[in-house]
């Protein structure tokens, strides 16, 4: 795969699109595209803030230095060698055809995140992890659908998929639900034992505790995962969350 990403920043007060284009050539992974664009956003912003005018140019990406670098400056559209594509004729689409195509496009990751937060009452942090790939998102939704019949909440299922790192290829969603239902009927560790484990986890992760006190509530999910690991999955995620929050604010 090879990507060539274009990005051009302009000051907010500018009414029109920038009259220049910065093209980053020969990016061979999505990760490099992301890194290169993030670097370019910062580079272009700094230049604009000190009043410099950006130029139309081609840049490369240096993975070792984590920077883009100038390859050549392009002055006009002619420098890009634009020419009509002889093998692709003009296409005309009717409104009905476009509507039909839109119905066949699956939810995009950002739409999945909104959907999970709204319809499954998950946190944005959980939703972003589950929506990272289509396979994981579909797996969660199928497990949540089956789990509903057994009074398993979507949050319980999400916590297990995220914290236990379920192998999606080896365990079907329905099988995961059966395992969770079976575990619910077996004795869990006592409240007193759970509190001891939680305190141990908090003592071993002072940075996470400090982050929580600075307002980073997502670290609670990390701490739950630590407790689940410490108890080999015997702790109840919901009770664990309550115990963690109780000790964090005490």
Strand numbers in spatial order across the main sheet = 1-2-3-4
Estimated structural class? alpha+beta
Q: How many domains?
A: 3
The proportion of strand residues reads 5-15%
Tell me about this structure.
- The chain is of the alpha+beta class.
- It folds into three domains: 3-80; 109-185, no CATH class; 191-249, Arc Repressor Mutant, subunit A, CATH 1.10.10.
- It is built from eleven helices and four strands; from the N terminus they run ββαββαααααααααα.
- Strands 1-2-3-4 form a four-stranded mixed sheet, covered by helices on one side.
- Helix 8 crosses helix 11, helix 9 packs antiparallel against helix 10 and helix 10 (219-230) packs across helix 11.
- The longest helix is centred in the N-terminal third of the chain and has 20 residues, at 30-49.
- The protein is extended, with a radius of gyration of 25 Å.
- The chain starts with a strand and ends with a helix.
Topology:
Elements: E1 3-7, E2 22-27, H1 30-49, E3 57-62, E4 67-73, H2 95-104, H3 109-120, H4 124-130, H5 134-148, H6 154-163, H7 173-185, H8 191-204, H9 206-213, H10 219-230, H11 237-249
Parallel strand pairs: 2-3
Antiparallel strand pairs: 1-2, 3-4
Helix pairs in contact: 3-4, 5-6, 5-7, 8-10, 8-11, 9-10, 10-11
